[in-house]
Amino acid sequence: MEKQTDILAFLGRVVQENTHAYRSDFVYDAATLTKAIWETNMEDRVFYWMSRPAGTWCVKEREVFLRGTSAHSIWTHYADTPDGIRAYRVTVEDQRDGHIMGRIVPLDYPVQARRVQARTLPTARIIVQYEDGHTVTMPAPEDMRSISTILPEHGGISRICYEPDSEAELARAIMEEHRWQTGKVKKPTAKRRPHPGR
User: Fold this and answer.
1) Mapping DSSP to helix (H, G, I), strand (E, B) and coil, where does residue 39 land?
2) Predicted confidence (pLDDT) per residue in 29-51, tens digit
3) Out of 10, 21, 44, 75, which could bridge 54 as a Cys pair, Cβ 3.0 to 4.6 Å?
4) Nearest 5°: CA angle at 7, between 10 and 5?
5) How far apart are CA 41 and CA 161, in angstroms?
């Protein structure tokens, strides 16, 4: 969808049409998308969202392209079993009369998930912000689940930022993906084989 639309109303209709179990997942998605309106960095306002017959997922686009993140694992998990999945790129832009407004681009999930798998970069570093304001930068652990046990004396974790070795390479991967999604990448055309008699 090229024009700006009411994001939650649109996705809510998709849930009603396509998600038959665990519809309550959408409550968490709505909270994530609503909170994004206050983010100052545009990359924190762009998400991939999917509706499945049993549940929904909403993950940050940036993190989908970084190996080791839960967003990457979630988004690519269904690549081999895509039946019934409706997927979209969702960009949160502003708030109007209490409605979260933005742009929604439909995705061909199985094809798009394969592109993501091919362009994924390793996560090199993580920046962890704690509730007391303390921030620490460290190499990405092999098991991301261990992050919650790092420096517990500073309280709970309020934010985690995942970084690759090259931000420029990540930006190129995401930009190329946007071009695919909007049809601006031309698919190679097969050359006509010459007639045997020529």
Assistant:
1) coil
2) 999 999 999 999 999 999 999 99
3) 21
4) 85
5) 12
